[in-house]
Write a structure and sequence with these properties.
Bound molecules: fructose -6-phosphate
Strand order of the largest sheet: 3-2-4-1-10-9-11-14
CATH superfamily of the largest domain: Aminohydrolase, N-terminal nucleophile (Ntn) domain
CATH class of the largest domain: Alpha Beta
Structural class: alpha/beta
Shape: globular
Distance between the termini: 11 Å
Strand content: 15-25%
Number of strands: 24
Number of domains: 3
Amino acid sequence: MCGIVGVCYSSGSAEHALIAGLRSLEYRGYDSAGVALHAEGMPRRRAEGRVDDLVAVIDRDPLPEARIGIAHTRWATHGVPAERNAHPHRFDRVTLVHNGILENHDAMRTLVENELRTNGSTWSSETDSEVWAALLRVELGNASENPTVDDMLGAISRAMLRARGSYALAILHDAIPDRVFFARHESPLVVGIGESGNFVASDVAALLEETRDFVYLQDGQCGFVTSDECAIFDETLQPIELPIDTIEWDAESAEKGGYPHFMLKEIEEQPHVVGRTLQASIGSGNQILPDFAIPDEELARYGRIIILACGTALHAARLGKYLLEEAAGIPVTVDFASEFRYRSPMVGQNDLILAISQSGETADTLGAYRVAIDKGARPIAICNVRGSSLCRLSNATILTQCGPEIGVASTKAFTGQLLAIHLLALRLGRARGTLDDRAVEARLGQLRIARHAMEQLVGGAARDHVARIATQFAHKPIYFFLGRGPDYPIALEGALKLKEISYVHAEGYPAGEMKHGPLALVSKDMVCVVLCGDSPTYEKVLGNMQEVKTRGGTVVAITNEDKSEAISMADEVIFVPKTDAFVAPLLSVIPLQYLAYFVALERGCDIDKPRNLAKSVTVE
Ligand code: F6R
């Protein structure tokens, strides 16, 4: 959903850091990219398309050396993907990059036209972001030619009062050559404090080559960075001090490390993610989630958990319903965050509200979470990004230890979320007396077994086997993924992965529901991927598989070596190690991720940057 970066070096050229930052932020959108440097005439270069296209433009028309600049990678909302709509936008002497949506852009456009006595010809783009630049020009008033730093801050804070919607802004003014101004509301923005200078960006991954020390800005804050100073102000322009957080992620964790795609790297990191999250979450004496900030006595008194999430995180939530209800005996409801917030949800003080999000910045999830918090529910979260908006809204957070997830298709974040839910279920089960210490220990043992079993599913022969099946079926037009119980959310996730990166129509379905309609779709053109490992419903799933086979469908079974009936019925079999039914989804999702990856590869799709999508969906 657009990525922004701003660099203020003490010496040297900012261009490399800006382009490197954009490459790390490209997962947020790749419709156009642009850069502006604080040099004579505020030179900028912009290109429709990817960062590589921008680099080609700069190669043809090099930029002068400058130590300060801003840059942007765009996921188009207002205005088609085109160079004229690419950021940075410039109005008079203000140049800026913007992530978010100026919801009242029409009213603000009219205001600008009236105040400056101009007309529609003032505008050079169709974007709401250009209006932001113009609004700052209006708010600068008579000072617009040669403002002081205080004039700029005043203009930014007044513009923030007029603007509706979400924004993270990095702003340059022609007359103030030594700093990048910034402002944020509902779109993520971090300040990086480095030895060679100071920085702003949409997320920390963009700045890992420069620093690991970050300040997480909050809604309503604005300020500036120079090469040796960072100043942050609240809505009333009172200076505020925010803590500096040193993160563990390093620059390599945001690079491909020899893999052709981030997605493949991230699939194969999953055993380590589970290992790291387990290690970070178990204290001495098998204390589960020792840093979770809500005491057991309080956890025990809630009557219900409501889980909110979107996309892949929602599938983790759906599996969470099985895990939490089984282990902790507490009713769980799961809701699309985007639906929850626009009805009149029945939620209150008796509820724990659990939001699950990799980025912690998904607008729908945050919006729904705020609704539940306002109604008195106790907010807890599972999140991968420390300092994110979600973490700040939460009373207690389980941080997944995935490292930066860059591939647009979420993989390792999903397994991190599943593991976090397992741990929450154990903690709650113990608090509520549904699990004693022995039961907790036995389940932790199962999770450790699963973590080692995951090693057998990544790389080598396991990967090659799925690649061969994917190649065989890559041009089939329709896929169904079927499962029952805890396998059903995995079926949903398998279908989502396939459709988002290979553009093949795929549906996840509860296997038992096929006969209530979708069976009519079965033909020789359909591939049915059936999850049929150890579970109480194994025999029922066999029946569902038979129904597909007898109607001419092709069946790929995900099962273990003991399941001779499934093996003999299927056209192709992908084996997963035999484990406890509740931890099995941690394993069975891996071949489904590979399947999507290799089908997309065979079809020539852009795996890390699927069309029309972006990671971290910070607009509604
Ligand atoms: C799918 C995918 C999306 C995200 C969804 C929520 O592969 O990545 O469906 O899962 O946009 O994102 P987060 O988890 O950041 O809230």
